[in-house]
Design brief:
It contains 14 helices and 15 strands. By secondary structure, the protein is α+β, with helices and mostly antiparallel strands. The protein has a single domain, classed as Beta-lactamase.
């Protein structure tokens, strides 16, 4: 652990909690495969007064997507899936209403044309894997596939997760556990928690915000299923919802990305080839998103860092070599293979604009200047 950096980050996150910007959060970071930051602050559960500690778990929304993308890349690296092959080759039911041309690359980069949730979707339906996959497979694209980028906030998870299941035979939760987490010694990433860890999960809360009136936004992230109240439900926590229902801690996020920052290997365990690690972080599109209008540099299932005016997510850093995924309200994970840096942030207050983004940026910019 780096005492200088640890102390600096601790001071920053304590300040966020003391100011009321945050309730509770964790941060972890690796450099050169070594854990250099492992810190936390605040309250996990305001109702009970339980404090955040190293083992607190948080529902981290779309930070889950980074793990899910990596699972598919493991299969691609082994030659079991090709990015330019249609999704319907592996999942025939998907190939209706013009979706027969959607390829795996387009699914990973939010260009499949089906970001919308099923009409009338409920939290109960979202916990039913087969029902959600059937409904998404039956979707008619909102645009000609491949022509428009629109963030598939929820549907990404079922599309990529079902691809993994169809190709490998194991559900995405089992595949992630056996092929990614267990080999890396990651104990606290869940696509469906066991009862035994329920008491460690911090309830999420939402900061006040104006109601959304964007019609496309409401189809992509319907209000009746996209809220802290929904993801706090016991049935939701126990379901495999890989677009945004992953439950984890900062250590798990940082360790996953430490492997990617180290060209696919960590502590002598190789998950991906070095060559494939270059492929998965290569920019695929920087087009504006149809839902938000925001330009975003995207790789194969991950966002890319860099200057905002160039479509980068500056919370990861400004060099553009960073890649990873953020989650609704401010969780974040990323790798920077140039600096051999990885970062994980989890939290329980969902808020935009996100004050902890400056914490992530501070770590990304400060670590290379801290003496070992």
């Amino acid at each position: 652990m780096n005492a200088t950096l640890q102390g600096r980050i601790q001071q920053v996150i304590d300040g966020h909690v003391e100011s009321g910007d945050e309730i509770g959060l964790q941060i972890a970071a690796y450099v050169n495969g070594e854990l250099v930051v492992d810190t936390w602050s605040g309250v996990a559960d305001e109702a009970t007064g339980q404090l955040v500690d190293a083992d607190t778990l948080f529902t981290s929304w779309s930070t889950t997507k980074g793990f899910v993308a990596t699972c598919l890349h493991i299969l691609a690296d082994r030659g079991h899936v090709d990015y330019d092959t249609p999704v319907a080759t592996y999942w025939p039911a998907f190939g209706v209403h013009g979706k027969d041309v959607v390829n795996v690359r387009e699914a990973l980069t939010h260009r499949a044309g089906v970001p919308q949730m099923p009409e009338g979707v409920t939290p109960e339906m979202m916990t039913d894997w087969d029902a959600m996959c059937a409904a998404i497979a039956a979707h008619t694209p909102l645009w000609t596939p491949g022509t428009t980028v629109c963030y598939h906030a929820w549907t990404f998870g079922w599309i990529i997760g079902e691809l993994v299941r169809r190709i490998d035979g194991r559900p995405i939760a089992q595949f992630a556990r056996e092929e990614l987490c267990q080999p890396l010694g990651i104990e606290d990433f869940y696509l469906g928690i066991p009862d035994a860890v329920e008491g460690r999960v911090a309830p999420l809360t939402e900061a006040p915000s104006e109601p959304d009136t964007n019609e496309l936004e409401l189809r992509v992230m319907p209000a009746q299923v996209t809220s802290a109240a929904v993801v706090n439900r016991p049935d939701f926590r126990r379901a495999s919802i890989p677009g945004g229902g992953g439950i984890m801690n900062a250590r798990a996020i940082a360790r996953h990305y430490a492997m990617l920052a180290q060209a696919g290997v960590l502590d002598g365990v190789r998950i991906l080839s070095a060559e494939h690690c270059k492929v998965i972080r290569t920019v695929q599109t920087d087009a504006p998103d149809a839902r938000s209008g925001v330009r975003r540099r995207r790789a194969l299932g991950y966002s890319l860092g860099g200057e905002p005016e160039q479509g980068g997510d500056i919370s990861m850093g400004r060099s553009g070599s960073e890649f990873g995924h953020a989650g609704n309200g401010g969780s974040l994970g990323f790798a920077d293979p140039v600096r051999k840096l990885s970062f994980g942030l989890t939290k329980n207050r969902m808020r935009w604009p996100e004050p902890t983004a400056e914490t992530a940026y501070l770590v990304a910019e400060t670590i290379p200047r801290i003496p070992g």
